[in-house]
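[job 4417] fold queue: 2 targets
>>> target A
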Amino acid sequence: MDTTLPTLDVAVAIIWNADRTRVLLARRPEDKHVGGLWEFPGGKCEPGETLEAALRREVREELGVDIRLLQPRPMVVHKYDCRIVRLHPFDCFCCGGTPQPLASTELRWVTIAELGQLPLPPANVEIINNIVNCPPSPAVPPPVR
């Protein structure tokens, strides 16, 4: 991996609806890196911040809701021309409020099948593959965290 590029740790929220058949995606503003593409909510970890704390903070800032974390998924490392990102995805539920596009141009609930039909950043391909191959069980109640 190229050590001359900045490396960012990014906490990623895979927010499921109640019956775990759809996930929430947000469309990035055009003037941002990979602008106009759809992504899972989340963002960069601040120095000294845990992934879980960063994810809760970012989702509050981006969507105006609190989340309940279920479980982590495998980390994904992706190299862009200008940076390396380490994506740390977590399965989540909203636990209060209705998501609003506070930092994006729009939100959309999509099925697992629809994930492959929308333009997403290249770094998200491995996350989507993991979701397709390991969808959450709707029968397991979410833990409280």
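>>> target B
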Amino acid sequence: MEDAQQAMMEMQEVQQNLQQVVQQSQETENELNGVRKALSELEENDEGQVYRAVGDLMVARDRDSLREDLEEKKEDLEVRLKSLERKEEKLRDKLQETQQKITQGMQG
């Protein structure tokens, strides 16, 4: 009985961690999509002044400098997203393993 309770607590903890990782993945994906859109706009519209939001201000920026910043941010976000996806996969495996323990505990 105590093992079953321990497994249930472990399962709840894994579920909470999984929810957090999924949320972080979604937020990272949204941010990455925004960066990709900004880069696409820079490529499509290669004329005129570009600006970057700094707090409540919009500050004029050099187009190439802004592109480099966005490319770097894109790479960082892609690495973060891959890391979160690996973490999510491990947590899903752990959740399945814990659920099997509970099922086996109920049967045995």
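[job 4417] complete. Note on B: The first strand starts at residue 50 and ends at 54.
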